[in-house]
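Morning. Coffee machine broken again, so started the prediction first thing and wrote up yesterday's gels while waiting. Chain of 236 residues, entered below exactly as on the submission form.
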Amino acid sequence: CVLQPTECFLSQPEEKQESTVKAKRRKKKKISDVLQKSAPKPGVPADLQNLLSQHFGENRSVIEIEELKLSDSCFLPANDLSHSFSSYLKEICPKWAKLRRNHKEKKSVVMLVLCSSALRSLELIKSMTAFKGDCKVLKLFAKHIKIKEQMNILEKGVFHIGVGTPGRVKALVEQDGLCLNSTKYMILDWNWRDQKLRRMMDIPEVLYKHLYILYSVYSLLLFLVLRSWSVKFSFC
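Came back before lunch.
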């Protein structure tokens, strides 16, 4: 028998599907595009409370989540975006000079400032010159600084302000290198935006890494607050 030649036709659906997927990917909006069109808004207590509820929501009952919530009286007015960092700190902490003089405890700080990175921590330290006066400020981040070194510094000296990342703060607390009982102010660098206009909560790697650690620190603070520990939260 003689085989008749047949024509081969390449099916096109897969190419169309692939081009459709590529088109969808091209049309996907970036977080910076969305934020560019949205006006900056100061952080509010509900922002932190909502993130806390989302974090604990899967593992705790509704009643347990309600018990973890802080009242609005635990929060100071947020930076309305018209202040510099120093002027904002002066407004929310008018008796800073007295608090600074009375603080004598080692392994602790009066004010704890949490931000997303080591570089941002250095920026904040430089920008608070007009506020801090003669007080001692300690860098609390991992970049180029070993945790043992920070623990030794905290054990030997008295520091008034700690500025750093949630990861290093959590590690110091867990290893008994930093005590939070003397902390009166916890400042969250909530409103700052990077070159892509993203805040701390808008960056996925920060949201799922740094803020996850912040939740742990925050839950510890809640435990202490429920025991009549005096601390004020604020969004700068």
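Confidence is low (pLDDT under 50) at residues 223-229. Going to sketch it on the whiteboard this afternoon.
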